């Protein structure tokens, strides 16, 4: 009997179908088309995976980590397949080179979410470990694929745990606020920030969620509102600049957001606008909870000042729904993330538990993981 909460939607998955040519592909739900169209993609080339991450077909820190892991497995399967089609056998040296090159390609797609580099590094370490024992390309393919599946399964399990811990902070009758999308669409499970909400709902708690639209790419309006509606979680979509008013009116009792990177001191990078929400929350005495798996924690960085912030296409700001909303030639800034300092965060919830200030000790104890090697791909 499986009584576990199931994600309302599948975001990233692996296809194995002997009747298809080739028999393998990476499945993604194209998030750029939501909520108007639900289109599933089957990718068979690593370049398509890189494009999907860059253009936000798949997005959200844990989901892009899982996608990158599967992307490496896909690249290896693809090159073995191409060689077979030409009647050749792939050498181990070329297989290794393919893995490393693809890791570098995928590493460059998005800089802020550390889950991406973390997953790639873990995949390369798994590949290295099998190469010590064997010189068979088949064994390498199997090991790399297994690691990608393990990363996805661990992410799904982490979501369930974050849901349990986070739900303990939600009281029956509460009204919550969330920013961006940190739900099933951002992970390979229930989500991070939305997992406590799904769990609390399953526990029978009555709740209501205010959803920031999240300009400029509208992950709140397009994705979170869609996901919550599908899950029958009562929600109200608001524009970003309405959040303060709802807080002042006493309509919001807690805020749940995800993170793209958490540094050793508890500073977090998350979708642009999170910092403004955090400042407003403090002004109104409302707790701000950050929910993220340990794969989002970057202990190699001491503070949020060191987090690379992705600067995206100005066109995301100057147009809305395909329509220009700004005068031609106006200067535009488009940082995709901001940093919220730890003193504005009431607690950080991971799959290991609930960390509170001072984060320096608690995060280290909680997530005995190290991202020291992540930088090796930058060289
Ligand atoms: C569990 S997702 C956490 C974060 O990745 C999320 O809040 C976010 O900022 C996503 O940004 P995006 O640009 O859509 O990838």
From TrEMBL:
Substrate binds at residues 59-61, 110, 219, 270-271. Pathway: Amino-acid biosynthesis; L-methionine biosynthesis via salvage pathway; L-methionine from S-methyl-5-thio-alpha-D-ribose 1-phosphate: step 1/6. It comes from the Bacteria. Keywords: Amino-acid biosynthesis, Isomerase, Methionine biosynthesis. One of its GO terms (biological process) is L-methionine salvage from methylthioadenosine. Its EC number is 5.3.1.23. GO terms for molecular function: S-methyl-5-thioribose-1-phosphate isomerase activity. NCBIfam families: eIF-2B_rel, PRK05720.1, salvage_mtnA. Catalyzes the interconversion of methylthioribose-1-phosphate (MTR-1-P) into methylthioribulose-1-phosphate (MTRu-1-P). This is Methylthioribose-1-phosphate isomerase. The lineage of its organism: Bacteria, Bacillati, Chloroflexota, Ktedonobacteria, Ktedonobacterales.
